[in-house]
Amino acid sequence: MRIWAIADLHLSFATPKPMDVFGERWRNHPGRLAAAWHERIADDDVVLLAGDNSWALKLPDALVDLQWIAALPGHKVLTKGNHDYWWDAARKRRAELPASLTLVEADAAVCGDWVLCGTRAWLTPGHPTFDPATDERIYARELGRLERALAAAQRLAEGSRPIGVLLHYPPFFPDGRPTRFAEMLSAAAVAFCVYGHLHRRADWNVAVQGERGGVRYHLTAGDFLNFVPSLIVDERGQVRERSFQG
After folding, report:
1. Greatest extent of the chain over all pairs of C-alpha atoms, in Å
2. What does the pLDDT look like over 42-66, one tens digit per residue?
3. Could you tell me if 166 and 50 are in contact, meaning their C-beta atoms sit under 8 angstroms apart?
4. Fold (topology level) of 3-233
5. pTM for this model (two decimals)
6. Domain limits, the chain
7. CB neighbours of 103 closer than 8 A, spacing ≥ 6?
């Protein structure tokens, strides 16, 4: 079993939303993603989708996108992004989702030799765009969700399985300093963390990747990867150093 990752699919099959208005990297991105996925990923692999999976506002529309994802090879583990407005309804109705999808938010799941957990995360106090009036409450809630996710992961790990984490927001400030989210990952001895959310070249150039505080970080935003899933854990169980721009 190998573990792959990609974030920010921004699918919209029920109500199409052209994404190439955001640049050439987004032109026909579902078709390019599907082709790259089929070339690389086997049925016994795991693929991590770190948020912003669908533009849908309601679960019925999101199910069209989720069924498209489910039909691709491998088992998929998803966490929430800031645009996944359908998410809460889906979590309440997990039994209705395709069997090849697992949603994680403030909880964890065993996948082969690994335990995987996650949450959305959020902007952190001290970030240039953090607004206490609108962000403080969400930030505190996401810290609590990560705390519960890591606790659940450690129970399932039973001291022997390594832990991987999916976040949507990067757990570092733009200048590379760790946020409280990153500090929690290091304290929990997490092996790797994948994240997305960043869509500008200037942000990609300074995004933290590689080992920090004992954790290996991978930027997996779809447009950064040019919609080619990134290999995170190889067939020997070794965590790769970083993801590379496609």
Report:
1. 47
2. 999 999 999 999 999 999 999 999 9
3. yes
4. Purple Acid Phosphatase; chain A, domain 2 (3.60.21)
5. 0.96
6. 3-233
7. 77, 78, 79, 87, 90, 91, 94, 97
Sign of the four-CA dihedral 106, 177, 193, 132:
positive
Give rounded-to-5 percent helix, strand, coil for the chain.
30, 20, 45
At residue 77, what are phi and psi to the nearest 5 degrees? Answer: -115, 120
178: confidence class by pLDDT, cuts 50, 70, 90: very high
Cα angle 98, 46, 190; round to 5: 120
Give the contacts of 198 (CB within 8 A, at least 6 positions apart).
170, 204, 207, 219, 221, 224
Q: Determine the average pLDDT of the residues in 162-178.
A: 97
Reading the block at residue 126, the tokens are 């001290």
The span from the CA of 214 to the CA of 164, in Å, is: 12
**CA gap 63, 196 in Å, rounded:** 22
By DSSP bridging, strand 230-233 and strand 3-5 are: antiparallel
